[in-house]
Write a structure and sequence with these properties.
By secondary structure, this protein is mainly alpha-helical. The protein contains nine helices and two strands; from the N terminus they run H-H-E-E-H-H-H-H-H-H-H. This is Transglycosylase SLT domain-containing protein.
Length: about 240
């Protein structure tokens, strides 16, 4: 279900050129995490509202108890613009304008007027962590906005009333390489391959086809001289 307070805050941030998460964070801090436009604080509880307007500012910008969140936001815009907040400034300058009267006064402190101890920078850097989380929840969850002037691929304006707009750009895609046309088999490469195969096999085929050499003939026995005595000795005796 849409939250009218969230949509109104985003619209206010868009008009003054602030980051909605920054604006929601400082409002959460100033109201003790309640986002209550009627809350009182400061010395003698004389300050009221979303950014704790003092008595002169209440009268000048029309901030009053009993207003709705949406009704008091124009007073917040008027005060910030009149005191020098410019589009694109960050949370330090935003809170310096609220707490110290103008941007750039990071070392100023309102502790003497009933504010919390610490300078503007101390409060932003050390005391607003939980309020940053409350602000993100107020805006609808994990909120990472675009700043004014950033373009949206969808054509939606940053901080539009259709809801928080994420600042994470889609991951870049690498185009596929164009497909090559199918020109059929490479006949030249095939013939070259076959020729190389036949050349490598030719010496082996030739070696297999060559006849084996005939074995050398055995040497002829040498002729022996006739020994008559041995011959007659072998004859049987006639005794």
């Amino acid at each position: 279900m849409p939250d009218a307070r969230r949509d109104a805050l985003i619209a206010s941030a868009q008009r003054i050129g602030a980051n909605p998460l920054d604006l929601a964070t400082v409002i959460s801090y100033e109201t003790g995490g309640t986002f209550n436009p009627s809350i009182r604080g400061g010395a003698g509880n004389r300050h009221i509202g979303l950014i704790q307007f003092g008595a002169p500012e209440q009268q000048r910008y029309g901030a009053a108890q009993g207003q709705s969140f949406e009704e008091q936001l124009p007073a917040v815009e008027g005060y910030l613009t009149d005191r020098g907040f410019k589009p694109g400034m960050g949370i330090l300058d935003l809170y310096s304008t609220i707490n110290a009267g103008r941007p750039g006064r990071y070392n100023a402190s309102d502790a003497g007027n009933g504010g919390a101890p610490g300078t503007v920078a101390d409060k932003v850097n050390d005391q607003m962590g939980s309020h940053r989380a409350k602000a993100a929840a107020f805006l609808g969850g994990d909120f990472s906005p675009l700043m004014p002037g950033e373009s949206m691929p969808s054509g939606r304006a940053p901080f539009s009333l259709s809801g928080p707009v994420g600042s994470s750009a889609p991951a870049p895609t690498i185009p596929d390489a164009p497909a090559k046309a199918d020109s059929g088999p490479d006949l030249g490469a095939i013939m070259k391959m076959l020729g190389a195969g036949q050349g490598a096999a030719a010496p082996q085929a030739g070696a297999e086809a060559a006849p084996l050499p005939a074995p050398a003939p055995a040497p002829a026995p040498r002729p022996q001289a006739f020994d008559a005595r041995k011959f007659f000795a072998l004859l049987p005796s006639r005794r």
